[in-house]
Amino acid sequence: MSSGFAFHDAMCPSHDGDRRGDARVPIETDVSLESDSQFFTGLTGNLSAGGVFVATYRQLPVGCTVVMTLSLPDGELRAKGTVRWSRDTSSGAAPGVGVAFDELAPADAERIARFCELRAPLLHDSE
Known about the structure:
mainly beta; six-stranded antiparallel β-barrel; disordered N terminus
C-alpha cells in the first residue's frame, strides 16, 4: 500500500524518525480497550492497516497489550494490539494512544484495507 509518501500528521508523534508505511485515514467511531488492569472506551482518530489512534484522556503504558473492539461502517471487529505511544494533554494536541495491531483476523484485515481504500488518507509529501 505504500505510495512513496511518508504518512505523518501532527496528531501522531514520530519516534526515532520512523514513518508508517500504511495510509492512515480519518475515522471517528467508538472503540473499547481492555488491558489486564483497565477497561475503557474512547474515539478513534485515524485508522490504518497497521493500527489505530484512540483519542482518550486515559493513559496506558507503552508496550501494554490491549484487546480492542471498534466499529466500522460494516460492523464491529476485535483485535489484539500493543500500545506503541501515548500522549497526554501537555503537547497541545489531542491526548490518546497509538495502538499497533498484533492479532487481527484475515477477514477483518481485509475490511480495514477496503475501508482505508475508500477514504482519503492523512498524508503529506515527504519533502
